[in-house]
Amino acid sequence: MGSKLGEFGRFVNIEKVLDYVEKRRHEDGGYCFVSVLNDTNVNDTYYAVKMYDLLGFEVPEKEQTIEFLEKAIQPQTAVVAIAMALEALAILGAGDVAREHVEIVYTKYNPLEDKFAVGLGGSEEFGTATPLEATYWVVKAFKAIGQPISDEERDKIRTFVMRFRMGSGFGVKQPTTTMTYQALYTLYSLGYRPPKSPHFRNCELCGDWGGFTEVPYSLPPYLEPTFYATRGLELQGEIPTCPRRHIWFIRQLQNSNGGFRRSLELGISNFQNTYRALAVVDSMMKHI
């Protein structure tokens, strides 16, 4: 796979991104977004793997990273983190290793037993994971490693996901970009084709701003809804209205250390934000 260094270099300082990631790799094969800490973790390691894959580079000393991820799959590990580890192993060419640990998922997440929220632990978005978020990550991981989902499991998951439907979107108290994408991705991955949602389009900001918001007709834009809305439009076969403005928004988020923050205001870089920023640029480049 060839690298995309030149393509990305037109819009962001990609050399600084690579330096940012490489300096945060540790001897155990894991990554920690705070370089001075030796507290490597699944989240940062997952996003490091995703960034290298997106950019078309091999993960340095990937066998060590494979070993790190496999060791992280433990009974006490949150289901979202286990799902991340499984997907990252698949990206690293170790899908067979990932499949050896599938049973541990079913101790925490088992639709046939109505287990959608057992020991959820940490979340990507909300501090404590919602059952919908866990569902999204598990389905995503199973798809990556080729783990089959039975028809009965599919029906159970679909019924569960539809509990979060609110009008044309999905959410708990109101439809949000994050939960709408997670729900729709899950349904599409299971073979269902729900109606297109206008939610993502209604959260798009052009003009002076760029980016997307979590709820329609609001300000300011943030990186996470921009990432999920971009993916949501792609999922529905739609294109953004103002891709150049969205790239402008992303450009403003790059910090001096090469990583990206989540908003136009001051904020620290982390691996999650940096991957999402690159993924948005990668998508927008196709439309300009």
From TrEMBL:
Keywords, A to Z? Repeat
Its name, as the record gives it, is Prenyltransferase alpha-alpha toroid domain-containing protein
For this UniProt entry, the molecular function terms from Gene Ontology, in alphabetical order, are:
catalytic activity
Chain ranges of the Prenyltransferase alpha-alpha toroid domain: 15-79, 133-191, 210-282
Question: Is Repeat given among the entry's keywords?
Answer: yes
Read off the CDD domains from this record.
ISOPREN_C2_like
- Matching Gene3D superfamilies: 1.50.10.20
Q: Name one Pfam family in it.
A: Prenyltrans
